């Protein structure tokens, strides 16, 4: 079975030491699989954070980063960010750097700032490069300069990467800061790994309705994933599935086959949307297709509501657009009032449709929150733009609830600019309840 081969390759990659170089040909030869199978498995390993692939370097085994140190970058990731080339010290590409130091000073002054696992960003200064390596720091050489063989040899011996890039120092610092900032935004996003129930209760294909009833009695839960002999999720069983069935009846015959599953890196927003659309209460969490946990609708609800109460450290585009707008209550809904900023404009100086959509959807969410519905997902949006809105124009969005049910809500949205209607929209949303 190709799936079994796929799992074996992932397990083999996990067994390799950190820093090991990985190739499709080597995997195919050692595990006796096709190069296509090896390639797909390596890509999966990259998706789950086991390996990193770099131009002109190849694929290497790296240490999986926890969410707590997500703002730290490995030297392998630095190469991708700066489009660099490794001149020496390939054995240390998997290491994580603590901070970077710009070498725009005399060497005596520079050594005060350089520590172990730092990255020194410097130009064609051999003595500075040598001193950094002696202090346990890697080196990033800007301007496309090469370095001497003695530096490359020292880098190999100490397993500290020496990287070459064509960019200048300012650009490099900007790129690295941008990468760290993007990671901080990701850190604020709640993922399945943050809330899953690990080592969940489950049933096997050999289980019967009697086994299900016994597990319900022991756990007080009624929904369980069903796994095969390899711990792969093959189904899910609920009260509805077993209703009226004989106690000796096999769970395999009654379960819902091929259930929706998620991974550790799936966002809670995506899980919430899936639960609403599929009408399900429990989703198994898998890694390499094997069961490692579950998330329930109630867990998702609690986490989303808790996230709304937390102060946000990093600002997303959504936050940036809304930061200049204030919310006012009006009969039957709310109004957002603010001004079109340069960040919200397109290439010809008018308000971009994306920024205007952010205003419309968030006004709708605000109106639904006013109606005591905290968590909603957009089902459908119909938008008509009548007139362009130019930069620095005052705009307001009025959101009024047209219809409200137990599971859905419809919101009428009107955008004004200097008293003129510039946009009309109808948004329908599904309400995520417990």
TrEMBL record:
Keywords: CBS domain. SUPFAM superfamilies: CBS-domain pair, HprK N-terminal domain-like, Thioesterase/thiol ester dehydrase-isomerase, Winged helix' DNA-binding domain. It comes from the Bacteria. PROSITE patterns: CBS (PS51371). It comes from Anaerobranca californiensis DSM 14826. This is Predicted transcriptional regulator containing CBS domains. Gene3D superfamilies: CBS-domain, Hotdog Thioesterase, HprK N-terminal domain-like, Winged helix-like DNA-binding domain superfamily/Winged helix DNA-binding domain. Residues 196-254, 255-310 form the CBS domain. Pfam families: 4HBT, CBS, DRTGG.
